[in-house]
Amino acid sequence: PMHAMRLQRVGTLLIRTPHIQRRLGPSKGLSHAFQRALRRRELYSTLDVFRSVAAKLPVPSLPRPGAGSERDAGVPRAAVDAATDAACVAENTGCTVEPREKEPKASSTKDLVGIYLKLGKIRLTSLVVLTSAMPYYMCGGGIFTIGFPALMTGTTLQAMAANTYNQIIERKVDALMPRTRRRPLVVGAISPTHAFIAAGVAATAGSAILYFACNPLTCWLGLGSLFSYVFVYTPLKRIHWINTWVGTVPGALPPLMGAAAAHGSLGVTALFCGGVLALWQIPHFLALSYLCKNEYAAAGFRMLPSEDPQKAADLAFSHTLALSAWCLVLPWFLPCSWHFIAEAVLLNAAFLYKAKEYQNKPNTQS
User: How far is CA 106 from CA 18, 113, 160, in A?
Assistant: First the structure.
């Protein structure tokens, strides 16, 4: 409380300086940047703003109310301007905006490529591509044919387009979470219009490659994954916690794409790989949602671990059990070596052990 009172006193002294009083004219001193921030409702606590301002100020040299200008007091002009904006927002809205550093726009091709990779979540995309490559190989697809690089390229472009559209839709929410507030659209490194056009080009190019170099089935499966992720899963995250199960659909389609690219149809191997990924995603995302439940709740995302942690832990275990059973029934339908059965038993046993730990005691350690 004493620290907060000191910070408020600093703000009061700053507001009373002649420079700030001149800025508190008819426009209330709100800069264009802060007006835009207000429209976006990116509002933060008064304490955080005054803490960041007070850290830059030579507090002992602050003038008494009615004393000379800020130049005489030794107060830096930039700090005064920041405090002015904070004070003006507080006066007009009852809230304040935390000054956030904006990254410059991309000034070179290298910068732009880096931004595109961040928008497309290239690390996540590479895992999606891997889940399509393995079924392609398992179904007898040739690595040294045009189909394999076409599958890799087309899937990469479609996945990056889906992730970019997701960031465009959630850019305001991303600004509220520490984990995502440095994303390119949040910090202003690229405009939403630019990102939208880039995603459209990537989606179109990726779909064309899959359609003509692989086959139409692979293309339509990829588009199904893209549209279900962007237009169903993404908005559902703010409506109901069932979004986690809906999100397994776009996640389970890339393995089917790989199998379809190999021989133009879907068989037992494709369905097995898609089922493994669908069942695995549930405990994975429930655990991830538990770790980030406070951030998700603050941003307005409806996640089951935020609403009922124990139910989430129970469902994580039951889906892990189903995944183990799914893996062990494959030998009934396809010829498998004893190596596969041994590895499936050991890996699923370890997975079940950790899931049971999480069910018994839901916490960040389990």
Answer: 38, 9, 19
Which tens digits make up the pLDDT trace of 204-227? 999 999 999 999 999 999 999 999
State the pLDDT confidence band at 83, using cuts at 50, 70 and 90.
very low
pTM of the model: 0.71
Transcribe 113-142 into DSSP letters: HHHHHHHTTHHHHHHHHHHHHHHHHHTT--
Please give the Cα distance from 354 to 344 (Å, whole number): 16
Angle of CA points 159, 150, 206, to nearest 5°: 40
| pLDDT score for 108 | 75
Structure tokens at 84: 């002015």
Query: For residues 160 and 305, what is the distance between their CA atoms, to the nearest angstrom?
Result: 28
Strand partners, 44: 96
Q: CB neighbours of 313 closer than 8 A, spacing ≥ 6?
A: 286, 290, 358, 359, 362
pLDDT at 352: 96
User: How far is the CA of 67 from the CAs of 12, 64, 80, in angstroms?
Assistant: 13, 5, 15
Give the closest residue to 169 by CA, choosing from 125, 204, 199.
199
Per-residue pLDDT, averaged over 82-87, amounts to 44
Q: Can you list the domains of the chain with their CATH numbers? A: 2-93 (no CATH), 106-265 (1.10.357.140), 267-366 (1.20.120)
How far apart CA 23 and CA 34 sit, in angstroms, is 14
- Which two structure tokens, joined as six digits, stand for 136? 């392609």
232 with 246: CB under 8 angstroms? yes
